[in-house]
């Protein structure tokens, strides 16, 4: 670092001078930087691997036809590639999941952050987080075998074996820990002075939680919601197992439907010949999925940064 | 006169300053919040009870001594899936841990807080953590299986899952490094140690428990992952144990998925039994992680 300037000190002894340059340290720094760059290569690899086959796909099928027509039949003799049924399926299931996860996740977060005693918190929080560690294939099995059969069928006798409702409900439960733990982090970052101020003005605990803490932590809470929605859109196994594999342009949650992810899973696990238009369609749907979740992740990252700056 | 003392601001008579209407609303609110938390936990309890009860008749040694079979469910087991999982996870660990540790050391110990490159890598990792796992499957299919011609093998699966869990390894290692107090670094540097000597001999050893916990959590995520492997050949019917990195394979989550798709009830029971096995493995790993954390918790 200071090797050159130190050696130019006229004739004097410089005890602080480094006696020999340490090339090893430079090599190590290089290796570390390279390791950090692997994550950049990963993103680059994802973009390249979805983009190139997608471009070939869009050379044959126009983007307008892909995005705005309503028939998805890649396996038919006369295949059609209108992605709207897959988007509808994704949307219906995501909306159901979000309707479950947002109230339950936020409620859990407020309870853990504002109400639970430290002892109760120490037990309840890890227990809730066990949900996040359950493999999604297990949730899928449970949705198909238990929720559809024993919970939903008695209520809706007309429900199909594969349906969007059970997949959406179970997915909602799956996302609770994501939303709860990020929202709780945001609420924990709210300075306790704000709470004390509210109490001093005579607010009750509920008023303090709802009108002071939640608004103060809002950007973090919204970030949690956005990340939860992004996870719901990208979830594969639950929908593949419980929602069926039939593209279905409907808003009726009692029917089966295919999502973007379950199409990729179904087509990708079959014997699709490389280079065929059907093979390329996997990547086109993958590109769409990546683009949607990328935008949502970026929004979430921005929002988290906002609340961190506000309270640090 | 006494009235002015009680209501000094001339408040309208219908506003009750003592607020004795509040406690009931507040109590109800508290119960609703608790219910939110309770639903998630109750769901978990029902799920566990259901798979254990359903899988109970098949929870015996057939599960790990026998190979999968489509024709004879009463003889079918999941041995090839168990060994396949071990092979794949070994390669996942081999690739993701060194890269993850080194990346974390770079970001936490070497990069300047103002470095543009470091900030860019950081945002990139945050995004990668939230990329759908099936997209990693596409990456694995296009790059590892096809472009690098590794095919649908153990090593392709290991590489793909390594990239998938890399953000988890990096984030948890960074947290472990951050928990090591600055004094230790300053002391070492002041004695003339170089940055790497400080990192390798002081900071990293102090962070080992935290790194171990994060590692276990990352690998348990990889063990449960199924979606990317659907695209990487794991769904084919495999009734042999992998013999090396270039062998065909299947894993426990994929075997569960395959049995779930079968219409005969015996296979559903088998799927439930395999789920119990998978959950026991994950539970054991998490217990070890918690044990390490509690045993080595150090107050600086």
Summarize the structure.
The complex is a heterodimer of chains A (312) and B (300). By secondary structure, chain A is an all-alpha fold. Chain A has helices at 3-7, 23-60, 63-68, 84-115, 118-133, 136-155, 164-188, 192-200, 205-216, 218-234, 237-242, 260-269, 277-310; strands at 72-73, 80-81.
Name its key features.
heterodimer; A: 312 residues; mainly alpha; MetI-like fold; 2 domains; two-stranded antiparallel ribbon; 13 helices; B: 300 residues; 71% helix; 0% strand
- In total, the number of strands of chain B is 0
CA(first)-CA(last) distance of chain B: 61 Å
The third-level CATH topology of the largest domain in chain B is MetI-like fold
Could you say which structural class the secondary elements and strand pairing of chain B correspond to?
mainly alpha
* Class by alpha and beta content of chain A: mainly alpha
CATH-defined superfamily of the largest domain in chain A: MetI-like
CATH class category name of the largest domain in chain B: Mainly Alpha
Low-confidence stretches of chain B: 1-5
Unreliable stretches of chain A, pLDDT < 50, 5 or more residues? 1-11
CATH-scheme architecture of the largest domain in chain A: Orthogonal Bundle
Largest sheet of chain B: none
